[in-house]
Specification:
The complex is a heterodimer of chains A (470) and B (220). Chain A has 470 residues and is α/β, with parallel strands linked by helices. Chain A is built from 13 helices and 19 strands. In chain A, strands 5-6-7-3-8-9 form a six-stranded mixed beta sheet, sandwiched between helices. A six-stranded mixed beta sheet of chain A has the order 15-16-17-12-18-19, sandwiched between helices. Chain A has a four-stranded antiparallel beta sheet with strand order 11-10-13-14, covered by helices on one side. The relative contact order of chain A is 0.13. Chain B has 220 residues and is an all-alpha fold. Classes of the chains: A alpha/beta (470), B mainly alpha (220). Chain B: It is a multi-pass membrane protein.
Chain lengths: 470, 220
Amino acid sequence: MSYVVTNLIVEDVHFSYPTGKVLSHVSLKLKPNSFNLLVGPSGSGKSTLLKLLSGLYPTFSGGTLDGKLTLDGYDIVPFQRVARLGYLFQNPTRQFVMQTPFEELRFSLENLQVTPTDMTDRIEKVLETVGMTDFTHHDLSTLSGGEKQKIALAAALAMDSEYLLLDEPFANVDPVARLQLIQAIKHYQQQGKTILITDHDWSGYTDMIDDVFVMNHGHLHQADEAERTKILHEVPIQTQIKTALPNEQEHIIELKKVALKNGTRQLLRNTSLAIPKEKRILITGPNGVGKSTLFSTLVKLYPYSGLITYNQQDIAKRKIAQHVRDIALVFQNAEQQFVAMTMAEELIQAQQFSNHPEIWTDETITEILTQLNLVDLRQHVVYQLSGGQQKKLQVLLMLIVGTPTLLFDEPLAGLDNDSQQCLLNIIADFTTRQHQTVLVISHQLQAVTDWFDFHLHFENEQLSYVGGEV
Amino acid sequence: MNPLMKFAIVMVIALELTFIKSVTINLIIIGVSAFLYLFLKLSWKQWLWLFILPLLPGFGSWFSLMYFGTGDHVHMAWVMLTRVFAYLWLGGLFTLKLTEERDVFLATLEQKAKLSATFVYALVGVLNFMPAVNQQIKTIRVASQMRGQTLHIWQAQLYFKAILSAIRWSQNLAEGMVSHGFTEGAPRTHLQVVSIAKRDWLILIIILIAFQLLLIPNWY
């Protein structure tokens, strides 16, 4: 283990795209061996700062960088940089080169010129740390979002760098795995490392945090004692989800003896249940259990066995174009939902195909955009929006289309508390007015305690309703 | 045998076949390949492809030479027909087992043939991406159907989205490589050091010499 102190200097940094300024006058000083939290609303520039620190920007983004941003001087090439400063992406699907976790970690260690005899040990150790030993040789493309995030963290830990930058590392991770990962990061810090993490929910590790930094519209400041205490107390309280068990209702979707498989892995076994019409249903369960796969199945993007009906019609016999006009998926990865280039074009397209054009007037849309802090971004290219902004726009677009049944795959992941509440209110308001059935996969439970009518839990190859009188 | 050595043998022989106008030699190549396939345990589907794939180009050139050719056209018709089969069956010796040997092949390219690691890993990334392409196209179509728009096979927008997602993906690949410490031109260590056995070199030399000897008689 190296104890050479790396000097990370960030002084008066400015960063801008031709379309506008992202960061101004940013200075950052991290104490050695400290745990730092970076907070701020979505789109304020947190990810941009982290990507600049990691050296990915401006190489991969374009834009102009001014000010002093150095890591032990200037000319540091990636493998030397990574040895000192590791970085974990916000989007777990985006960071792999190889086919399996083992190969990916091997690739990373080979780049760092680690002695071959140490490699296998090191790989096995970190995979154990993140609880993914069983998946060492699985195909990465078959892993769930949360599982991929664990592998990405393992890669960052294996590189044993002094600084570790984590961009929303828990956004798609289930609560149990979240605690596991926090422990792993804590353990890593205790070896003398410095951590910088952006997150919207710091419950479970509040006591580990040393310094808090606040990003607001591209300006960064370190919170003083009073502000720090205030922020750290804003931890959302974990409450019981209050839902009832469904009784005799009109059903929109019915599953009869349905089974799902991912390769050789059984996800769902012989499950029969019904989804009531025009209700809001929460789906929870650990990472990789098959929640997203279940949604893909319902829109005919994934094979299954058994019988699934929508409005008493076998979905296997329904044409896909017609089927997805009745039941649509709000993808976990927002970019998959876009069909145009700019936000304005996307909105016009959605309005044009809306099932409820009388609700979605230009005024209404402007009002909602204002609530979501998106109103000034209309001319922006959708692929250049921040992760949180993309998510909010995506949800809005799907609400405008107004499909009778909407399946939301982690609509709140990576959003700050205010944005989460705001988005939930908007979803509730419009889905009620448009008589929609809403199914939501979410790990952000604190935001949704009273929001749902029913709660489905997915675990051990079974999907069943929970709740009622406790 | 190391796949790169196999590749070298196949390439040299295939190149020579281009200049050899002999039905017999072609038939010998086909025969030897077929003999080797018996040990490779092919699936019936692979056998089927080996027979079907050369049919159209093979008989295409056979017919055109046979009925519209001049000079030594009858002989050349048979040469072309057997040559197409010989090419494919010979190439198959390398490609049909490539899926299993891909990693070793790429590692050999990097470590032994000293091909740029950037190129090799970009190739690895692309190969890992291939199976996802079909699903991606399907998802793009369904995603736009969810937005009320049906993109047909002949519509440019479908490909625009596909190209866009390929560009995004290649950018992600580059970022992923860099964030996992990959540096162009920098030395790397290797968990699995590829070595080419002396036996492989010996086999290569023997096969190539034997093939040259085979060319000496004046075959039909």
